[in-house]
Structures are given as C-alpha cells and as structure tokens.
Design brief:
The chain is 38% helix and 13% strand. With 316 residues, the chain is an alpha/beta fold. It has a domain of 220 residues: TIM Barrel (Alpha-Beta Barrel), CATH 3.20.20.
Length: 316
C-alpha cells in the first residue's frame, strides 16, 4: 500500500450501501468468507455505513479468521449522532469513534483508519496529532484519507513531517474508467509521496457492468432503482454514458473477460492504485470480480477503452 511495507490484495471487499442495509447478515458473511478463501485480505468499512451496522456485520464475519491474516479498514468523519461533537475530525470525535468502531468490529486494533472527508472546521494539526496518538497506542496501525484533494493531502504530509507524526499511506477516491478526476493532481502527488490509492466505485456503481441499458428503465432491486443509492449515480445514468458503455462489450469479449472484470482490470493497471474495493451481495459476484486480479489485457485494450469512452470521461 503506497510507500508502506504492508501488502494488501489488489481486490478488496467493501460494505458501502450493502452490509447492514440491502444485504442480509447471512449473505454478507458468505461474501466475506468467499473473499477470504479467494485470497482477498483487505476488508473496508466505515462507522457511518448503516450507523455502525456494517462494522458489526464485517466484524462478526471475520471472527473465525486469525487476526493477523487480514487487513481491516474503517473510517471516521460523518455524523454518528445529533450532537455538535458527533461529527468531523476533532480529537473528541475521532477518539470516541475509534473506540466505538473497535467495539463494533470486535477487535483491539484496525489496520487502516481513514478520515472519510476533510474537515474545514478542525485544525489539521489537531486531526493529525489525534491519529498519531491512536497509532502510538496501538489501536491503529496505518492512517489514510478519503476523497481529499491534492492540496489537502500535501498539507497533511508536510505537517506530519514537521511535527514528526505518523504520515498518510493511502487515499480512498472514487475512480473508474469514466470518473478520472484524480489523475491530474492527486495521483502525481501521491506517487511522489508514497500514498497509495484505494479505489472505491471501480465499477461506477454498476454502470460499467453493462446491466443498465440505454433506453431501458433500471430493474427493481438494482442500485439505480433505489432512491438512496441512485443519488450517487445521477451523472452516470444518462443515454450518452450508457450508450458508450455498450461499446465496451466487444472490448471485454476480445479480452476474454466479463464487463466487471474489464473495468477492474483497467483500474488495477493505472498508476498508484494499491487496491480496488468491490461491493458484493452474492459470493458469485466476489468470484467474478476477484478473477480480475492478474487478468491479462491485450496490448491495445487500453487504447480501445479510451476510444469507446471518448466524450463521456470525467476529468478535473
């Protein structure tokens, strides 16, 4: 992961919008166990996912495995209550939420603790010092961020060096074939500084799987048909994007891959990507996605993908 010494699987299993919500605990556990059996050692969650329910489910699912055999990540920032200190990256909120996450996960430490967003209302020094304290206490092994800008990541790295604090090893951005906003600034900075990208939404909320067809309403039970989930998909669910994605079917066929495997294989071949987080409601989805790790792409596949998606790629 980035410039650190820890090794994580190229494919990781997340729990955003799934475990504790649309996916029952039994199904979630089956997915976690199948992922572990396939060699996935990286499991990602957050305190805010279903207000702690996702952490509980992930923690219970991992109970039967040796703690040193997997890499467990969670996050802090979003509101976990109605009080003025129940959100953000203050010392109070980070400390209290770390302890709450450890209880829900049923573990003494998390491998990666991530600031889920940047907090304009808290001095960066306070946030970094608190994270460093948790590392020194052995409750957190590595620290990272999610959806921070290049400037925010750079400031954090500079302060950590000046104050002799534990430094960031990862950033968790939205990144896929269509949404490439991190390429111009975040990736170059992170490459120089040893910060690895732990990518979420590598399948663009399912759009890159090809299950949403132009001119057709999304099927009931899919993310696009769910009011809570589809608010994250609005810029993707249009005729222009869905028509372009249809053009990827031939590229996937030529590569001998499924559409999800093609999207994941593309992400894993991009600079500075440490791992791609998948979401799964069935063990078969985990199996299909995991096969993208190590999958070969024909030499001209990357150019073909760029040609097909020209005009719908989001940058900057």
């Amino acid at each position: 992961m980035g410039g650190s010494g820890v090794k994580v699987s190229e494919i990781s299993l997340g729990s955003w919008l799934t475990y504790g919500g649309s996916v029952a605990a039994e199904q979630a556990t089956a997915c976690v166990h199948r992922a572990y059996d396939l060699g996935i050692n990286f499991f990602d969650t957050a305190n805010v996912y279903m207000r702690g329910a996702a952490e509980e489910i992930v923690g219970n699912a991992l109970k039967g495995f040796e703690r040193d055999s997997y890499f467990l990540a969670t996050k802090v920032y979003f509101p976990m209550g109605e009080g003025p200190n129940d959100r953000g990256l203050s010392r109070k909120h980070i400390t209290e939420q770390c302890h709450a996450s450890l209880r829900r996960l049923g573990t003494d430490y998390v491998d990666l603790y991530q600031c889920h967003r940047y907090d304009e209302g808290t001095p960066l020094e306070e946030t970094l010092r608190t994270l460093d304290d948790l590392v020194r206490q052995g409750k957190v092994l590595y620290v990272g961020v999610s959806e921070w800008t290049a400037g925010q990541i750079g400031d954090a790295l500079r302060l950590a060096k000046e104050m002799n604090l534990d430094r960031l090893v990862s950033n968790q951005p939205r990144y896929n074939m269509i949404q490439r906003q991190i390429e111009d600034e975040v990736v170059p900075l992170s490459e120089r500084e040893g910060v690895g990208q732990v990518v979420f939404s590598p399948l663009a909320q399912g759009v890159l799987t090809g299950k949403y067809r132009p001119g057709e309403a999304p099927e009931q039970g899919t993310r696009a048909a769910d009011p809570e989930s589809n608010r994250f998909m609005r810029e993707l669910m249009n005729e222009e994007v869905l028509s372009a994605v249809e053009g990827l079917r031939d590229v996937a066929l030529e590569a001998g891959l499924t559409m999800p495997q093609l999207a994941l294989a593309w992400v894993l071949r991009q600079p500075n990507v440490s791992s791609a987080i998948i979401g799964a409601s069935r063990p078969e989805q985990v199996e299909d996605n995991a096969a993208a790790s190590g999958a070969e792409l024909p030499p001209d596949a990357l150019q073909k993908i760029d040609d097909v998606l020209e005009g719908v790629v989001r940058r900057g």
